[in-house]
Write a structure and sequence with these properties.
This protein has 126 residues and is an alpha+beta fold. It contains four helices and six strands. The chain has a six-stranded mixed beta sheet. Strand 5 and strand 6 form a beta hairpin.
């Protein structure tokens, strides 16, 4: 399902998702905190459950293995509005040889669109 570029909410959620892949944003606890919902949680591709505080700390120390500005390449990016205040963003990320299906739920808050939940699932090599 392609991203609905005509929906402002979908555009905002996708823009936020892509910002979260920028190393400069990930390394800034303040910028990450602005994008994460106060009740954020994640099931990482590692199988670990992350909460808001632990993922902010983890990302602050992250380095891009390729030396690029983004930590992963993105393909199959799609977004759809689930309800008036929820958007689902899905994509495939590739970081070196590891590919993952990714999904995020973004919720509208008084402070704008914030990611509420994220999940990564490793795609086994073919």
């Amino acid at each position: 399902m392609p991203a609905d570029d005509s929906d402002e909410a979908v555009r905002a959620a996708i823009a936020g998702e892509l910002r979260l892949l920028e190393l400069a944003v990930r390394n800034s606890p303040e910028q990450v905190a602005e994008l994460l919902h106060p009740e954020y949680f994640e099931f990482g591709a590692s199988g670990r459950r992350w909460d808001r505080e632990s993922i902010i700390a983890e990302l602050a120390a992250e380095q891009s293995p390729s030396g690029q500005d983004a930590v992963a390449a993105v393909s199959d990016l799609a977004g759809t509005r689930i309800s008036a205040d929820v958007v689902l963003v899905t994509y495939v990320s590739q970081r070196e040889t590891r590919r993952c299906h990714r999904s995020s739920l973004w919720r509208q808050t008084p402070d704008g669109w914030r990611v509420y939940f994220h999940q990564g699932t490793i795609i086994p090599p073919a």
